[in-house]
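notes to self, project folder thing:

trying the whole complex as one job this time. last attempt i did each chain seperately and stitching them together was a nightmare. two parts in total, labels are on each line so i dont mix them up again. if this works i'll redo the older ones the same way
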Amino acid sequence: MAPYASDDSTTGGEADERRSGRRKAARYVVPVTVMGVAAATIGLVPALADSGDPDLPKITAQQLIEKIATSDVQQLSGTVKISTDLGLPDLGGLESSLMSGAAGQGEGGSSADPTAKLTELASGTHTLRVAADGPDKQKLSLLENAAEYSLVHNGKDVWGYDSKSNEVYHGTASESPQHEKEQPPATPKDFAEEALKAVDDTTSVTVDGTAQVAGRDAYKLLIEPKQSGSTVGAVSVAVDAETGMPLKFTLTPASGGAAVVDAGFTQVSFAKPAASTFDFTPPKGAKVTEEKDAGKGSDKDFGKGFEKGGPREHAPKSGDDLGKRLDGMKTIGEGWNSIATFDTGGEGMPSGEAGGDLGGFVDSLGDKVTGKFGSGTVFSTRLVNALITDDGKVYVGLVTKDALVKAADAGK
Amino acid sequence: MSRAEVVESVRPVSPLWTFGLLRSELTTTFRRWRTLALLAVLAAVPVLVGIAVKMETSDGSSPGGGGPAFISQITNNGLFLVFTALAATLPFFLPMAIGVVAGDAIAGEANAGTLRYLLVAPAGRSRLLLTKYATVVIFCLAATLVVAVSALTVGALLFPLGDLTTISGTQISFAEGLGRALLIALAVAASLIGVAALGLFVSTLTGSGIAAMATTVGLLITVQILDQIPQLHALQPYFFSHYWLSFADLMREPVYWDDLTKNLGLQALYAVVFGSAAWARFTTKDITA
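result (full assembly):
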């Protein structure tokens, strides 16, 4: 905005006026400079911080995998940022209710129930805080807007606390050691373990240089399916050079674009967290739901709660893994291209609760396809595709639509 | 009045002199009926929230999860009314009050024809502007503290006090809770210095106090609406209101500093950019009124 110089009656002469006008305009250089410097700082600082990939001794992929396997981090605390973009239609609340239903949940009725709560991680970007001190003490907090959901495991007790509704969920940890040994879930380590399970001769595993993650030097492990037809493009895991702990996990789809799952520490410390971190007393006036009151809760221990509701649902897994979950399921193909198939025995569209009124709605989300097998509907996300044929057969896998149709044709 | 003392002062540069000018500005601002009315409205918000929660829960039911942040905890601990009241006033009431005071700072004087008399004093325009800005920032703090103190009083009268649970589920003592409440009030006051600078800049652009206030409050509403539009998410981190609710992170254990520091940095950036723009405008402007 130009200052008016012309009204200045005390300054005599055209030249003087022009000079003072220029001087006045020069003052606006200050805010403009400040803005420029700020923009440059915002733009350049991350770039400068990123540029120095650490210089680490060479390591083979095999050694790196062993490093992850032998990693024994008992104590840590840190902040994890997790973004998931499965390409699901944005259904808002309906999505989460459908998903918690899909996770085999009874009507718990408490907003502090871990299984229902952690399905929220399946879409969007979330910030988590994790802390662990040995196998008996773990804490996971989901940071929300002016609220927080905390899941505390301390000895026998498992507490879920939802500060927004001031509700508490209380359960007991099972004695089964294989769950107890787990590091705090939803961390890059969980994802990495799932990904490494899928490693076989259909997979190429390479060390892809080094990186800085959360201020620590890390190796990058790149896992790629060798066959075509999978929707999984690549999985990249950044492994802490010192402790062998996976610090960042990225799953990119074959179709390109943003990562489907991107979970990484933004800050991590391997020091012992304060003991008070794991203390939890239900606040006064909070509504406490006991595990046994929360419907059919007997099979929901700490580990399983995460396994069902947690984001590891979306980590790549071998057909075997899927097979265990659903009865009467067959697996076609191997490695990343394995397709799970089962017969609903019903007519066409999803049976049970999903039918009826919802049927038409569900129909509108899918694409009609036809092939030698007849016709059916394909439901696709950026990672998982499912084909439901009109005679009630279901084919699900981390594969492209064409691969599903081919599998259905072959199965006919 | 103290403005008379200002004129009497002959020494050209003395640090105390600036304080004299500031004191004069502060008394002028805080003695205005308009300012007092704004503070009264701010003090009434926690009273309303407190009474509403008390009435709703008088039958022993819980207030539920809706409404402003922390509202479900008020019945268990009156201190939470401070946080709820700040969360309820920060999006609109507080910045509106700041917008009125900041918008009035220069334009109001020009409107009333007193600006040229202020400039007769050998203060210099830069120093006058700085004093005006300091006054607005002090008003930010005062307005926030009015809300906090009113909320604490109402909370103590209507609800029990005692140890409180952080939103991370850990327990802290009441004394530490009070300390956090003070920190939160400071964080909220600091959240407003960006609006204050923006309002001051708008105030140097026009000679009408009403126009400056309306523009500032209008900008405030516009930015808040834009902050809700998902398509603009790339721009939103640069809106002055984007990290306002980060003050709630002070109630986590341990405190989550990321958004708080982002908020402070953003407010400082707004203060510098619009402060210097206001300076560029005000020091080159022709004062005719």
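what i see at first glance: Confidence is low (pLDDT under 50) at residues 1-11 of chain B.
need to look closer tmrw
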